[in-house]
DNA sequence: AGACACATGTAAAGCGTTACATGATTCT
DNA sequence: AGAATCATGTAACGCTTTACATGTGTCT
């Protein structure tokens, strides 16, 4: 029941779709999985080394001849078996840490204006993410209607989109409640 | 710009509402902040020690006389200043790790039934949490209508509730999409 | 020329969970 | 009597981020 790192499965899952460099894996996680997962270079490169030692991936191409240093990795059959095995296992990690919620929960320890400011900043940050997620989701939906199936990406991007939209609505509603109860009614 | 641990602020924020034991702080985080934050004993007790050394909290009462060992901590003025300072600072941590999304995203590497099973299990886990969050939120709303103001707790619990409801709807919709596209249409 | 993105990798430091150790009280 | 909960605390281990080091290619 030990909760080991999931990094290797992220790497394996990505490589099962297409061969990639370590850098490419990192960028892909940022682009497609950022709503619900994140990894750093400091974890990806050592993981890649370890996965190769274990025979789960191989170096497909090492472009070192004068040009830019680049190592493209590819998944092996053993790697695919290992990934499939993990996909069947029960889910262990459901963890989220949102500092905004903590600060809002402690609102009574400061001025309402401080909390409203955090909510405003959150709203503008999240509006960008939401817009981005919407575009990505529309794109994937269109690919499907053109016969190019990315159903699982479409579903996860839908989750990201709905998450951002829900959070935006929550932040706006919360702002309204605080303003109504704590700011406009100060002359109570 | 270093992202230090937030544990001490959680502790301070909770103690600013009421004096507590370390155990009580842990339980309170589980009860009221679990939707968006979590802490372990292994972090709370050392943090309490450190906060006392720094003069941000004091031992209010040490019930050690024959009875059950218990240390109640209370926040100091210096602690309140420290907390208020942090509440003004910009938000640094917005991190979530949902293994379910990773597994769904890698759906093509396994059978659709495997993904549907994970979604089903997620739905039953989340239904419980959602129900619980709804009750907590209703309770806080009622307290307000009776003149007992817990606005900030009400807002954060609303966030938790909406999060679970959104996730439930997403999981159900996703299941439908997978069944329609991947399972019923196998005879394509 | 300078900024930025591509690309790989290591080391240090700190974060955080889990397991362990210990014991009292309350509930069934 | 036994299980669950209350209660405190430490140690080990592993996870994860951040900073650093280094260099190429592309765009303005």
If you had to describe this structure to a student in words, what would you say it looks like?
- The structure is a homodimer of 188-residue chains.
- With 188 residues, chain A is mainly alpha-helical.
- Chain A is built from 7 helices and 3 strands; from the N terminus they run αααββαβααα.
- The first copy, chain A, has a two-stranded antiparallel ribbon.
- In chain A, helix 1 (7-17) crosses helix 4 and helix 2 (22-33) crosses helix 3.
- The first copy, chain A, is elongated and about 70 Å long.
- The relative contact order of chain A is 0.10.
- The mean pLDDT of chain A is 94.
- Chains A and B meet through helix 1, helix 4, strand 3, helix 5 and helix 6 of A and helix 1, helix 4, strand 3, helix 5 and helix 6 of B.
- Strand 3 (94-98) of chain A pairs antiparallel with strand 3 of chain B.
- Chain A binds a DNA duplex (28 and 28 nucleotides) through residues 1-5, 7, 21-24, 27, 39-43, 45-46, 49, 67-71.
What's the helix count of chain A?
7
Distance between the termini of chain A: 55 Å
Largest sheet of chain A: 2 strands, antiparallel
What's the gyration radius of chain A in Å?
22 Å
What is the chain-wise order of helices and strands of chain A? HHHEEHEHHH
Question: Could you tell me which chain pair has the largest interface and how many residues each side has?
Answer: A-B, 64 and 64 residues
């Amino acid at each position: 029941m030990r909760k080991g790192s999931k990094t290797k499965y992220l790497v394996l899952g990505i490589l099962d779709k297409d061969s990639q460099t370590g850098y490419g894996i990192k960028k892909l996680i940022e682009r497609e999985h950022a709503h619900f997962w994140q990894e750093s270079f400091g974890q990806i490169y050592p993981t890649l080394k370890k996965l190769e030692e274990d025979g789960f991936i191989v170096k497909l191409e090492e472009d070192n001849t004068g040009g830019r240093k680049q190592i493209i990795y590819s998944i092996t059959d053993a790697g695919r078996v290992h990934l499939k095995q993990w996909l069947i296992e029960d889910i262990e990690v459901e963890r989220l840490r949102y500092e905004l919620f903590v600060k809002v929960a402690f609102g009574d320890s400061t001025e309402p204006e401080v909390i409203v400011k955090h909510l405003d900043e959150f709203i503008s940050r999240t509006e960008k993410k939401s817009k981005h997620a919407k575009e990505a989701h529309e794109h994937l939906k269109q690919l499907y209607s053109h016969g190019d199936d990315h159903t699982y990406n479409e579903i996860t991007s839908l989750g990201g989109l709905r998450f951002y939209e829900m959070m935006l609505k929550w932040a706006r509603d919360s702002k309204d409640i605080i303003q109504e109860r704590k700011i406009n009614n100060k002359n109570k």
